[in-house]
Amino acid sequence: MNFPKGLGSLTLPHCWRFVIPAFILTASFYFLLGSSWRDQQPQVPHQVDHDKVGIGKDHTTSPPSYDGSNITVNLVIATLSKEDISWTQNIEIPNLKIIRYVSDNLKAEFHPPVPKKGREALIYHTYMHDFYDDLPDISIFTHADESPWHVEDTLNSSLTFALSHLDLNEVLKRQYFNLRVSWENACPSWINTSKTDNDLSKQEEPYMHEAFSENFATNNVPEILGGPCCSQFAATRDAVRRHPKSQYQINMDWLVQTHWDDYISGRVWEHMWPYLFIGKAVDCDVEWQAYCRMYHVCFDPQSRSRLINLKDEKKELERKTGLLEGLLDLLRGFEVRRRLREINAILAEELEKAVERGKDEAERLKLLSDFSNS
Question: How much of the chain exceeds pLDDT 70, in percent?
């Protein structure tokens, strides 16, 4: 066959005509094997935070039992027109009302004053202004995605799971609760409002002092802000009404009028919700305690220690399952995957126990007491 001039005209040493196909076949086999293995293993994702563990996507344990039949709840969802929120039908909360705000459609029943501005922050403030005189006991604010990265694996990476397991009585006591618990890139301190240098991991930091000062009309800006990310939370009627209705109009106007990029104006609010609702610049509950108290997912000291050790081993083993190492040492790769399957099975068992443990009120109280005394 005659190739045209160009790359096709280059010739390779005779041996490479066999080496390259062999390499491609080996790589394909490796990927297929890895994909098959991942599909068969228990879905317990790897954790990156020392105080987190995972609950698999196939976890079906029923929500905790509590007398929340008289608690009224609005689920406020920040959406675009194209987004599907049918998953909300599976949330097991009595007296739940869905309030869908559509950012890109000003003809929608609920919408912000201008389209696609300030991200979810403008929608949340618009809701609090619009519903100020007709608030339910609890308002829960979320994004449209049912499985966002913002919801950690301990909560099944699922808003349906998290909201169905959320103890509404505890929310009423606390008044404000961030649905995400993890301290990763959040606690015990994350934003320093005195810094003006750019940091790619927190690009909003140089803007925080000005944003805080302007939204709350104060020069007394806390130096440190800390709390779990990412603008998904629950707030009670009293927490919203801690400020007059005019406060939310001020915040709406600021978001609409700011010349800052939408990314920045939305992100700065991620760090100001605790101050808005409960007057705290730092709001960092102990992770294990928050999972147990707020979601009834309770790990005892032994299981926590075991899971931390297994997580560390799993992280190291997963590092060794890269393509190059797998190709160079297939036999060792099989051993690594076998051990990973064992670890995932142990994690799944421990997680099931944690949810079962959380169903027992006496056990929960005992563990929470232990946390307090530790």
Answer: 78
pLDDT, tens digit, 9 for 90 and up, residues 72-114: 999 999 999 999 999 999 999 998 999 999 999 999 999 999 9
Nearest alpha-carbon partner for 231 in 119, 309, 130: 119
Classify the phi-psi angles of 65: left when phi > 0, otherwise alpha if psi is within -120 to 50, otherwise beta.
Answer: beta
- Give me the residue spans of the domains in the chain: 73-292, 298-373
For residue 106, the one-letter residue type is L
Question: What is the predicted pLDDT for the residue at 7?
Answer: 36
Q: Measured between alpha carbons, how far is residue 327 from residues 22, 31, 35, 95 in Å?
A: 11, 10, 15, 55
Nearest-angstrom CA–CA distance, 299 and 374: 14
CA distance 254 to 257: 5
CA distances to 193, 205, 268, 283 from 223, in Å: 5, 11, 14, 14
Task: Give 13: exposed, middle or buried? Use CB within 10 Å, 0-12, 13-18, 19+.
Answer: exposed
- Strand order, beta sheet including 176-178: 96-102, 73-79, 138-143, 233-236, 176-178
Is the peptide bond between 188 and the residue preceding it cis, with omega within 30 degrees of 0?
yes
How buried is 283 (Cβ within 10 angstroms: 0-12 exposed, 13-18 middle, 19+ buried)?
Answer: buried
DSSP symbol at 204: T
Amino acid present at 105? N
